[in-house]
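comment on this one:
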Amino acid sequence: MRLVSCANIVVLSSELKAQIKDSFIALKSAMPDFKVRPSQNKMIAEISKTLAGEYQNSNPIICVEAPTGTGKTFAYLLSAIPIAKANNKKLIISSANVALQEQLLLKDIPEAQKYCQIDFEYTLVKGRSRYVCIRNLIGLCEEKSTDSTLFDSDLLFDEPPGKYQLEEMSGLLSDYSAKKWNGEIDDLMRTPDYDIWQKINCNRFTCTAKSCEFYQDCAFFKARKQISKADVIIANHDLVLADLATGNTVLPDVNESIFIFDEAHHLNAKALSHFSLSTSTEFIKTSIRQAKGISEQICKITGQDAPDINIKQVDGYLSDLSHALKTLDFDENTYLFNQGQVDESIKTLGKNLFISMTSIHNKFATLRESWSDYLKIKVLDKTITSPINNAGGECEQHLSGITELLASFLQSDTGAQSPHSRWIEKNILANKKTSYSLCSAQTDVSNNLNALIWSKASGVVLTSATLSSLGSFDRLNQQLGLKKSDNQYLRLPSPFKFDQVDFIIAKFKANPTQVYEHTQEVAVQLLKRIDTEQSSLVLFASNKQMQLVADLVENKLDCKLFIQGEYPKKTILEKHMALRKQEKSSVIFGLDSFSEGVDLKGDHLTHVIIVKLRFSVPTSPIDKTLADYLQSKNRNPFMEISLPDASLRLIQACGRLIRSETDTGKITIFDNRLTTKFYGKQLLNALPNYNIVIE
């Protein structure tokens, strides 16, 4: 990792220190129910020193594990905002989910504004696709745009929009024109069908930016102007990754920004998903036909000779490839290539397809450029140009994605780091045809993150309540490409008294690997241990086991049982709390999503029951490829991946119980591996200082 130069960073002058200190004093004295937390003081001090470059020969990057109750949000806001303002940098706060974004936007940042000793503006940023393109919406609503003598609307739609959809779009246009709607999909009571929204949303491949007649009234560019005015920008991990990987066109320049990644333990999974590619044989067929149709439309208007888009040749290559793929030994419709090395016979067929598709993509891109030049000297009705521009932009996006996937699918890995994962997925379509999806994904995104963020940003704070695994940051560093010697690390103690909480390892005959016996025993034990006067959260590692146990206990429990999937998560929590306010018992059965982001204080939760340890079994192609690679290097994927991840998940699950200084209760786990396996002691040692009770 390249060390970031801190020469352009203002040091912590006495004035800057005073601003941060006075902001914290104002928070302490004026915020209702404020509690003095030494950990919060420490976090403010270390973030300030790191971002101001006070640690020599170190990156302005700090990883902070701040347990629940630390007050981490105000710690990073009150320290980072003054430093960002003093250095004329933008502060970008990125979260993993919408709930935290809303909390920052509606509660935490407005609250911080009251106490911060400097003035600042803030805004929420969303991706382009969340905004309507008013030009596309008008084009869809105008009947003339579907005049087949000028433009074949089938090139835009697999199925033309129905009458009710067109009426709905006309309503959106009226509301936008009357300023009743701001153009964001999130502000609609009823969202349009996905296929329709894809045609009218803002897209970088179809956007003409300042050349568009609606530029001044564009929802997306209005939002962009707000971003340019704001000092603090609320984003999410997906948007940050997508924007930085596609040219940094939405967020401020990464070199001029300080990033705070809250819920940073999700960043690796988000990045793995973001840098995955796929396309299908049927999608390729559709895309080349769309490219040919649009090319013919353009050439018909401009008087050019249409480029040679050889559909028959591509169909032949796809047919040959499909025949070869049909012979593979699929495991539940998935075939994984060993350590990402595509079979030579398939690679040969794929290269023919890649060469042909690259040629078509280049010809189509050249034609679009000539079409753009033609429109500079020839004025045509927008009912002709708009749909052609939209269809052309969409098609070029498709062709670009196909060639990018094929290039990644066919490349050979260098061996310098873990290989790409490459696999085939078989899908039976509605017309009984078989379509094959070609997939390629990185198993290690550390270099990407370093190139996009760590080596460029003016400062970075990564924080979460659970950031370390087995007591160290090694797993985080491995996933994100951070080096311990280059950055700052801070693990803060919890303000809660965990030694008063019993962590009970239940006496169980069945090992969780004995699925049937363990499931039966779980049901029996739950009926004995659930106090029907209290509130319990039972966390399962598999949906199948959760449903089986629910069937066994539901009619025998003398209280209300909520099972994940029966209602949305938010509804379950609301119903649960409503019952507790009436002093009625309530039990929740949940999966991973209930192991974090659930904040049930006081009597709303007094007993957390963990059915079994959550080991990440390498079931996805990416996980399997990485595990195979580690084994090929005589490394142990269980010790390097599964065990640290299980430790993190166990701590997160336990963390649902104690959410404030006054909370009480107990934790029970139905997994005897904590006492019978060699790794049990490591997992127990990594927990907060609970009172461990072994039955």
